[in-house]
TrEMBL record:
This is Constitutive coactivator of peroxisome proliferator-activated receptor gamma. Functions as a transactivator of PPARG and ESR1. Functions in adipogenesis through PPARG activation. One of its GO terms (biological process) is fat cell differentiation. It comes from Moschus moschiferus. The lineage of its organism: Eukaryota, Metazoa, Chordata, Craniata, Vertebrata. The gene is FAM120B. Keywords: Activator, Differentiation, Nucleus, Transcription, Transcription regulation. It comes from the Eukaryota.
Length: 700
């Protein structure tokens, strides 16, 4: 992430940019300089997930109790010295960064393939050098931090921009993360999460002023440098020949540096010695070989401008705008929030399209049918555009969805309603195991019913409403384009309620309506009474297991036993006991089953949010329902034919609950003509024979 090659350059060529600091001392200094104020650190949470995930086991689906304890200790360390933490999570992927997102997902696929190859070869978890964060970690970390009383926010654009803006506007002590973009933003100090010692609260501060001194640049030059080197907006290869020319013409920087370090110094030298001579007189396209990439480059430079900031590299014309290819572009950062505009209809194609889109700028500027009026399109007010096309026209519902999104209280709902585009990153899935489908396919029907609910197509008739663009990672998906997924009709006794009823109603029967809608999303209305009788927190687990077993016919009774036994044994089990648990070996099928369950829990977050929260989110947080190693242990025991008594560790109350929960799941599956049988009773052709080819699911 961040600026290509900058991290290595700083470490090897400019070590004085890095200074060891202590958060306790910084906080004391801040309080003396700002009496009555509370020192705050804004945290880029996505950069910190690897640091926070300290449990030894990571391949079995996640050690969620241990992870929750790790987060609690992190928060306590800062709270103890009077520092307030504000956490930011990525809320959506910007279109300009989609290619980079895809590139990383495909790279992750290759890493996951190596992990499964290792497991099959060695029957154990790979070393930490192959570490891959457990599925759903980012989503559940939001809720864990909120449960710990922390201010947790979800971005409406790329999180690094909002992190930098928050730190800049709120006089924060600094930013804690691991992204060289924070060396480019002109904001509060940047601290490294990877260098943080939680015991002492020492870390490394990376000083952008010292970086500028080393390179002979000013702070205002850094965005230009970042884009010429390549970042998440401007591809690294776009200016490769330009960097080579800079290097060839600047012999003084070629000595005592590696090639990439020399290139960085050479580009910086060209900015300070050549470009600055014409600053304010010539436009960037007159000084640099921008060619057809002009708009993208301007957007990249301007993406670093925080609210109220301007770049001296943009020539300011009347009204502070310049004209590029008939588009009016603001060349300063505008702190005003964006305006959400409903989708306009193309009169010829009858497709819902963002009208006024300029392909060069990749901007969605809704102008409806009034083509005479040019709207200001702030390509560089930061990554976020002022005007956004939305899929839903009800402003009150959009306002509610947006607020829940920003407060990290929902998952995907606002993305569906605002842009009609969602994504899901990699999961630990074995691409060679054709007996178990990808979680992307298993839970797609649920998502389709949610789309129907959110986009107003849930009442009557066949599948209605616009298609949603899904960027979901699964085996065989090259991610060249999104899957276009149509909403799916829901069957709800008495008819489907409106979204306003589910979200805004305070009538006595509203909660029951929300519960019925949630069951309908999983197509489980016929088992309402049985599921309603199940005690919390196992009610959510049973809903998920019934759905999972109906959808995946290669799951057997032994799998069900393992899922139920681990959930029961988890209750009341100390975290230290879970950490000390040792496994005989690692089974690749159990790894993928764990992924299916955890991704099911994230799907429950989506459904519960969309239905107006009939359940408390705590009811299906993994630290209450799932532990990776414990599940793996129960899976291995169940495969050996262990009895229910042994699986639940001879706990009498657990034995009773085990049979009750098993009965509920089996009865509900029976209503769907899906008997759950032991693997030993399967016919020879049944086991592992189900082929899940991607194409059969991509009918949309």
């Amino acid at each position: 992430m961040g600026v290509r090659g900058l991290h290595g350059f700083v470490a090897s060529s400019c070590p004085h940019v890095c200074t060891v600091v202590n958060f306790k001392e910084l906080a004391e200094r801040h309080r003396s300089q700002h009496p009555g104020g509370t020192p705050a650190v804004v945290v880029d949470a996505m950069c910190c997930l690897r640091y926070w995930y300290t449990p030894e086991s990571w391949v079995c689906g996640g050690q969620w109790r241990e992870y929750y304890s790790s987060l609690r200790e992190f928060v306590r360390a800062f709270t103890a010295v009077g520092i307030k933490l504000v956490f930011f999570f990525d809320g959506m992927v910007e279109q300009s960064k989609r290619d980079e997102w895809v590139k990383r997902r495909l790279k992750n696929n290759r890493e996951i393939a190596k992990i499964f190859h290792y497991i099959k070869s060695h029957r154990e978890q790979p070393g930490r050098n192959m570490f891959f964060i457990p599925s759903g970690l980012a989503i559940f970390t939001r809720f864990a931090l909120k449960a710990l009383g922390q201010e947790t926010l979800c971005s409406l654009q790329e999180a690094d921009y909002e992190v930098a803006s928050y730190g800049f506007q709120n006089n924060c002590l600094g930013i804690l993360g691991e992204d060289t973009d924070y060396l480019i933003y002109d904001t509060c100090p940047y601290f490294s999460i990877s260098e943080l010692s939680l015991d002492s609260l020492d870390t490394v501060m990376l000083c952008r002023e010292r970086l500028c001194e080393s390179l002979g640049l000013s702070l205002a030059d850094l965005p230009l440098l970042a884009c010429l080197l390549g970042n998440d907006v401007v591809p690294e290869g776009m200016f490769e020949s330009f960097r080579y020319q800079c290097l060839a013409s600047c012999a003084s920087v070629r000595e005592n540096r590696d090639r990439k370090g020399s290139a960085i110094a050479a580009v910086a030298d060209h900015i300070s010695q050549v470009l600055r001579l014409h600053q304010g007189e010539k436009t960037l396209e007159e000084m640099l070989p921008l060619g057809p990439n002009k708009a993208l480059f301007y957007k990249g430079v301007a993406s670093y401008l925080l609210p109220g900031q301007k770049s001296p590299w943009f020539i300011q014309k009347p009204k502070d705008v310049v004209t590029l290819d008939n588009q009016l572009l603001s060349m300063s950062s505008d702190p005003e929030p964006k305006q959400e505009v409903p989708m306009c209809m193309d009169p010829e194609s009858k497709q819902k399209l963002p009208v006024g889109t300029d392909p060069e700028f990749n901007l969605e500027t809704p102008m409806c049918t009034n083509t005479e009026v040019k709207q200001e399109d702030p390509v560089n007010m930061g990554p976020e555009a002022k005007h956004q096309v939305t899929m839903v026209s009800d402003p009150e519902l959009l306002k509610v969805a947006r607020a829940q999104h920003v407060q990290a209280e929902s998952y995907l709902v606002y993305s569906v309603m605002s842009s009609g585009e969602v994504e899901c990153s990699n999961s630990l899935e074995d691409a060679t195991d054709q007996a178990l489908p990808s979680q992307a396919f298993v839970y797609r029907p649920v998502r389709q019913r949610v789309y129907s609910l959110l986009l107003g197509g849930s009442g009557g008739g066949s599948s209605t409403g616009p298609a949603v663009k899904e960027w979901f990672v699964y085996a065989g998906n090259p991610l060249r384009q999104p899957d276009l997924v149509r909403p799916l009709q829901m069957n709800i006794p008495g008819g489907a309620p409106s979204l306003r009823q589910l979200w805004l109603s305070h009538e006595p029967g509203a909660q029951a309506q929300r519960w019925d809608t949630l069951l309908a999303c999983f197509d489980l209305s016929s088992s309402r009474e049985e599921l309603q009788a199940v005690e919390r927190p196992f009610q959510a687990l049973c809903c998920l297991l019934v759905y999972l077993f109906v959808q995946v016919d290669t799951l057997c009774l032994e799998d069900l036993h393992a899922f139920i036994a681990q959930a029961l044994c988890l209750q009341g089990k100390p975290t230290v006991e879970l950490a000390d648990l040792q496994l005989d070996h690692i089974d690749p099928r159990a790894v993928q089953l764990a992924t299916l369950l955890v991704r099911g829990l994230t799907t429950l977050v989506l459904v519960n949010s969309a239905c107006g929260s009939p359940w408390d989110m705590a009811d299906f947080m993994p630290w209450h329902l799932f532990d990776g190693k414990l599940f793996h242990q129960k899976y291995l025991q169940s495969e050996k034919g262990y009895t229910a008594e042994v699986l639940v560790e001879q706990n009498r109350s657990h034995v009773t609950r085990f049979h009750t929960l098993k009965s509920v799941v089996c009865k509900a599956c029976g209503k769907e003509s899906r008997p759950i049988v032991s693997r030993r009773h399967w016919r020879p052709h049944h086991a592992g024979s189900r082929q899940y080819e991607p194409d059969q699911w991509r009918r949309y």
